[in-house]
Specification:
Layout lengths: L6 H4 L5 H11 L11 E5 L2 E4 L4 E4 L2 H4 L8 H11 L14 H12 L3 E5 L2 H20 L7 E5 L8 H5 L4 H4 L9 E4 L4 H7 L4 E6 L15 H12 L2 E5 L23 E4 L11 E5 L1 H4 L15 H15 L2 H18 L6 E6 L4 E5 L6 H10 L2 E2 L1 E3 L3 E4 L7 H15 L2
Parallel strand pairs: 3-13, 5-6, 5-7, 7-8, 8-9
Antiparallel strand pairs: 1-2, 2-3, 4-10, 9-10, 11-12, 12-15, 14-15
Helix pairs in contact: 4-12, 5-12, 13-15
The protein binds pyridoxal-5'-phosphate (PLP).
Pyridoxal-5'-phosphate (PLP) binds next to α6.
């Protein structure tokens, strides 16, 4: 693989090349990272193996909402590391009950199913919706359908890629799991037309992250909620990327004034320390699972629960939601000034933005590389969109510094 041209790598004393070569030689090539090799991080900043500092404008796709090395989260993890890290669910432990109680109370739900990755949470929600369809709604077994949206991103398992509309994510991973109906994102009429007696659930991202931070029309989610109520269908909101303060609300669906029956949570729930995910929702659905019907060796482990509890404590003050609103308003105002000057559109909510590069400008990859050489790390999603998602702990000065670099790279 040819190396790309970020200046750090042109430096002959750089140690980055040897690490990149090892990755290239020994790790599967399922990513194409920027040629930056991170060795340390703190807050909104990361430092590479050559001591060069960068602003983190991606924040682990929102897994690092509370910043790198957040002292409260590191303290909770460290304390739990010294006590007990894994029991398996064969036994009780003293973090699971409190974690589930605190997460249910925070999200206003009845019950919690802890898992690890986001994809597992989505898989679990699909299983729950199907079980609900057979046991509660009376759908004939094996006939349940779930309505999903085009351009969705819900993870990488074989079932989830079965209903992806991204050919790259899907091709050559079949045979595909049946039982999903795809409708255009934002089109509630199409969802209405797709609902049948066999519809178990509508699964949707309140804001589509991977698709480019796409905010749906204002009446989309409220109409889906009404359709679900009228037709006896579950609404599943995948808030793995949009949730946990990223958009200025605990849950992004609150901007649209709606509640889902099930929410999938992940990413920031693990505080950027370890994978922690969950399905949260009503007793009517989560109460259906009986012993032996679902599980995970690491799901709900003591370390995950202790970190998750520390995340919940941070979220319960509302401080991060507020920061996201305030810094987000500033971010969107500044990015908005670029529209018509190298940027064709900006989207998003809170401290989360999709920046659409105007025709004739650099590709998303080229823009990301140019930003990296200016000391700002972010990544394109789709070919021409930059996704901006700094840690919610970032200072206004640092945010401005990163936006200045974006203005330099994209502005015309
Ligand atoms: C990241 C993401 C997932 C998958 O999470 P993993 O932890 O990568 O499996 C699912 N849904 C959404 C909306 C996501 O952003």
């Amino acid at each position: 693989m040819p190396m790309t041209s970020v200046s750090a790598n042109l430096d002959t004393t750089s140690r980055a090349d040897e690490f990149i070569a090892l990755d290239e030689r020994y790790s599967a090539h399922n990513y194409h990272p920027l040629p930056v090799v991170i060795a340390e991080a703190s807050g909104a900043w990361v430092t590479d193996v050559d001591g060069r500092r960068y602003l983190d404008f991606l924040a682990g796709y929102s897994a690092l909402n509370f910043g790198h090395q957040n002292p409260d989260l590191i303290a909770a993890a460290t304390e739990q590391l010294g006590r007990v890290t894994l029991t398996s669910r064969a036994f009780h432990h003293d973090q699971l009950g409190p974690f589930c109680q605190e997460l249910a109370e925070l999200t206003g739900t009845d019950r919690v199913l802890p898992m690890n990755s986001g994809a597992e949470a989505v898989e679990s929600a699909i299983k729950l919706a199907r079980k609900w369809a057979y046991q509660v709604k009376g759908v004939p077994e094996n006939r349940a359908e779930i309505i999903v949206a085009g351009s969705n991103f819900h993870g990488r398992t074989t079932t989830i890629v079965s209903f992806s509309t991204d050919e790259e994510a899907r091709a050559e991973f079949g045979p595909y799991t049946p039982g999903f109906v795809v409708t255009p994102y934002g089109d509630a009429d199409a969802v209405e037309a797709a609902i049948t007696e066999r519809t178990a659930a509508i699964l949707v991202e309140p804001i589509q992250g991977e698709a480019g931070v796409v905010v749906p029309p204002a009446d989309y989610l409220p109409r889906l909620r009404r359709l679900c109520d009228e037709r006896g269908v579950l609404l599943i909101a995948d808030e793995i990327q949009s949730g946990l303060a990223r958009t200025g609300e605990l849950l992004a669906s609150a901007h649209d004034g709606i509640r889902a029956d099930l929410y999938t949570l992940g990413k920031a729930l693990g505080g950027g320390i370890l994978p922690v995910s969950a399905v949260v929702g009503s007793d009517e659905v989560l109460g259906l699972l009986q012993p032996g019907q679902h599980g995970s060796t690491f799901g709900g482990n003591p370390l995950a629960c202790a970190v998750g509890r520390a995340v919940i404590r941070l979220l319960s003050t509302g401080e991060y939601q507020q920061r996201s609103l305030e810094l987000g308003a500033h971010l969107h105002q500044r990015l908005g000034e670029l529209v018509g000057r190298g940027v064709s559109a900006t989207r998003g909510r809170g401290l989360w933005a999709g920046v659409e590069i105007a025709e004739g400008g650099p590709s998303g990859r080229e823009a990301s590389e140019a930003l990296a050489s200016r000391g700002v790390l972010c990544k394109q999603t789709q070919d021409t969109t930059l996704r901006i998602a700094p840690p919610l702990t970032i200072s206004r000065e640092d945010l401005d510094e990163g936006v200045d670099a974006i203005v330099d790279v994209l502005g015309s």
